[in-house]
Amino acid sequence: MAKRKRQANKTSEKSKKQKVPTKNEEYAYLKEKQDPMPEVYTKKPPQPTEKKIGQLTESQVNQFFDKGFVLVKDFFAPHRLDVVREAVNKLVDTVANKLYKAGKIQNKHEDKGFNDRLTHLEKEFKGTAVILHKMGILPKEFQDLWSDEKLLNVAEQLVGPELAGHPVWNLRTKTPHNEQTTVPWHQGVLGWIDNVKNCVLLCADNAYLEPCSLEVMQLTAWIPLVDANMVNGCMQVASGGHKKGFTAKHTCCAGGTWYVQLSEEAMVDELGVDLKKDIVTCEVPYGGVLFLNNAVPHQSLENQSEIIRWSLDLRWQKPDKPNGFYSLKDSVLMRTKKDKDYKINWDKMANTDRTKLQMEKLDEDNDDLTPEIGGPWMKRWEIVHHNRHTESLQGNTTSWHKA
């Protein structure tokens, strides 16, 4: 792949100025270690006195802070998510039309549906699933789900009455047998584990954000749009791996992906995880929600089925805390006790393409039909395996292996 640096004269202009930091110097702060902050993840906020729809039970709230996660299998009536699936179909149609217009595919596979159309597009143009993952515009159906009263009521229990939506949200396009959509162990989306020896996400987790994200409990709701099970790639969580309030050492990048990964050795030695007792496989039915914090290790299994395992992950935190997203995009206020009739202003969040911002941060072009993803998190961790996603990064001394 040819390197696609934006504006060739940009670097030369910078070099004429004195004291302009290099990219490595600019990202040096990402190597800083934060003091452990266990109380951020283990101390629950004062609980609401008013009973509201969707609220967790006391035991479920306690489990979240003790184990780092809680699974609610019947959170939504299935029809509540049907409109979200239709919005996904529209996104797939948009990608298919773009690829067809660009001459990259010969068949838009309009006779296929939610479970398999993207798979057929992927076979015709490898990387289609990545291109769809890169689409950073937030459909209204996703907005409505993110601000659903039931979800906000749970977020209020786990975060507090002041709630902001974190700028990183993800539509997961886990097509069958596709490494690019399988997420490895990491803190704070998930991957494939091979005989519990070799670890195999991109989300708003501590490993993908600035070190300051450790100071903020960021709640994730992982919402599958099909029944998620061991065959099609459900999640696994390292129960209690958040209790030290610490971001362990990760490396980049896993296989041919843009994902960072957390070794099992680090999970054991740095986080105190018992690999025999603490690994929990979370099968989530359609309508269920898995709630996680941003410090508990987790991964997703490989999709070995013949259907696509679609999912959404949405996040909340306190609005007065840094979101750790490299100053690329602000959080959006979703609920405040100061105004019970507050209306969310979605304009900036919904219409700003975060993938474009990530690539621009690295001075990279963001051709929306190029199946490559890069971002500042790649500067935080040691790059032990290069591939087309990391190829544009400068100043690395690790050995080159093109995936």
Descriptive overview:
The protein has 403 residues and is of the alpha+beta class. Helices cover 25% and strands 14% of the residues. It has twelve helices and 14 strands. It has helices spanning 8-15, 23-26, 38-42, 58-67, 78-101, 117-124, 128-134, 140-146, 149-158, 264-269, 347-351, 354-361, and strands at residues 69-72, 163-165, 170-174, 186-187, 219-224, 235-238, 251-252, 260-261, 279-282, 289-292, 297-300, 309-317, 332-335, 382-383. The strands form three sheets. Strands 1, 2, 3, 5, 10, 12 and 13 form a seven-stranded antiparallel beta sheet that branches. Strand 7 and strand 8 form a beta hairpin.
Number of strands: 14
> Uncertain runs with pLDDT below 50, 5 residues or more?
1-18, 186-204, 394-403
Number of helices: 12
Radius of gyration: 20 Å
The string of secondary-structure elements, in order, is HHHHEHHHHHEEEEEEEHEEEEEHHE
Please state the average pLDDT score: 84
Largest sheet: 7 strands, antiparallel
Distance between the first and last residues' Cα: 12 Å
Residue share in helix: 25-40%
Strand residue content = 5-15%
* Backbone shape: globular
Structural class: alpha+beta
Write the layout of secondary structure elements.
Elements: H1 8-15, H2 23-26, H3 38-42, H4 58-67, E1 69-72, H5 78-101, H6 117-124, H7 128-134, H8 140-146, H9 149-158, E2 163-165, E3 170-174, E4 186-187, E5 219-224, E6 235-238, E7 251-252, E8 260-261, H10 264-269, E9 279-282, E10 289-292, E11 297-300, E12 309-317, E13 332-335, H11 347-351, H12 354-361, E14 382-383
Parallel strand pairs: 7-14
Antiparallel strand pairs: 1-10, 2-12, 2-13, 3-12, 4-11, 5-10, 5-12, 6-9, 6-11, 7-8
